[in-house]
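Late entry, evening session. Most of the bench is empty. Finally got around to the prediction I had been postponing all week. Sequence below, unchanged from the version circulated by S.P.
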Amino acid sequence: MNDVAQRASRIRELVSQSFALLALLAVVARQQLIERNAVVDFDIWWHLRVGRWITENFAVPRTGLFSRTVSDRAWVAYSWGFEVLLARAEHWFGLPGVMLICVAMVMMVVFALFWMLLRLSGQFWTAILLAAIGMWAIYHNTAPRPILFSMAFFCVMLALILDANRTARIEPLYLLPPIFLLWSNIHIQFIYGLFLITLFLGVNVAEYILKKSGERLPYLMERETMLPLRRLAVVYMACILATLIGPYSFRLYGVVLEYAHSQVAYQSITELQALSFRTSAHYIQLLLVAAGFFALGRSRKGVDLFKLALLTIATVVAFRTTRDAWFVCIPCLAVIAEQCAPEQREAPAPVLQRTVEFVAAIVMLVLLGRVYDVNDASLKQTMALRLPVHSAEYINANHLPGPLYNTLNFGGYLIWWMPNYPVSIDGRNDLYGDEIDSRYWNSLRGFPEWRLDPDIESANTLLLDRQFPLVDAIYNDPRFRLVHTDECGAVFVRIRGGADASKSPAGEKK
């Protein structure tokens, strides 16, 4: 009778755990469906166009496709794997397919974070609580971009490394090279994963040297059993070699160097700037960092040198750039989870339970898509509020003359919806470089130098974001005429053969 009661209790516990996990996934998915980030994001559209080009040509781009200003410049589509996935979703299911695949990617991050925390803490409810707090802190990082894969891969990788660190078993690390093979063909931030394994190897070498020399640093944890350095070095080299297997191979590292030397984008684009502490998520991030260092220092065995170095470096990187908040939040959550782990860990959930949860999550996503009207008509209506949908239709319908000048936020959308009009700039910062970016931002802000901007001087049609000062400057310039506006965009054409008395179809600025 006791066995029956225990079995019934275990089943109730597993069911309640499944419902809790699905509830967390549902909350995140619902928020994504309400905000509809996947179709109003400025960069998603050029990713789609690149993905379609790859599938149509069975090749990857080597130059600045779709741009009129840097069409001959070398370019690496380092997210080509993500772009092909996105293009296939759009090809098979249209805009709803794009929406649902992007929401599924965010759910993937939630599950990867939960899985890491469960593996490290050994307690379901601790893991689910920390995962909820973590998603609150990094939710602003969940734009529908390949960075979502970086976040998920980083969670899996960190869990495997900390597991090997705790148990002195190197076998979990054998999964790292295949992870890097996928990661390096999906997103450039695989470099964060390489940093992680490099740091881990470096700390193990340092600890080995200290142990051999008989030196002992106060307050640092001293391991009784260490990982075999030779095998760890082999795993490390295999990870590096895995990143070279792909259409771009070593050229990926050139992109990393390009980003490292970039300056203008980090000064002008909000998500690339430091935390502003204008939202609750920024304060949660700060509290997580404090809690992570506190948990690290509270260990009775001494401070783990690897975790200390990781949290320190990750804090510097993440507080410098809002987009990289996840890079410190995930390690802090991992350290807290390990500190919460009891001596006796819970038995892992049956494979059947995780399989049922996966299927239930997919079904739930489809049902939520129907509840929140994820269809072509409603998505296009949402897009029109933030993207120049009607302005693009006007330019196409009236065959306005090129070349085109556009604002950066609109570039990705125009690449997708107006392929006959190569853009002057878009969200591919690594393609355009600091010189063009600096000139663009000075013009957009209405600085006097805009009159000398060669991209504007060579354009016959301009599609601008109405919120920027350049719109007023162009409107008051007799060389241009306002011909159309919509919810967010303004279309100007260059006047040929003399000035026009009217500045807009209605004779006044709209």
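Two things to note before I forget:
The radius of gyration is 26 Å.
The beta strands are 404-406, 461-465, 480-485, 489-494.
Will write this up properly tomorrow.
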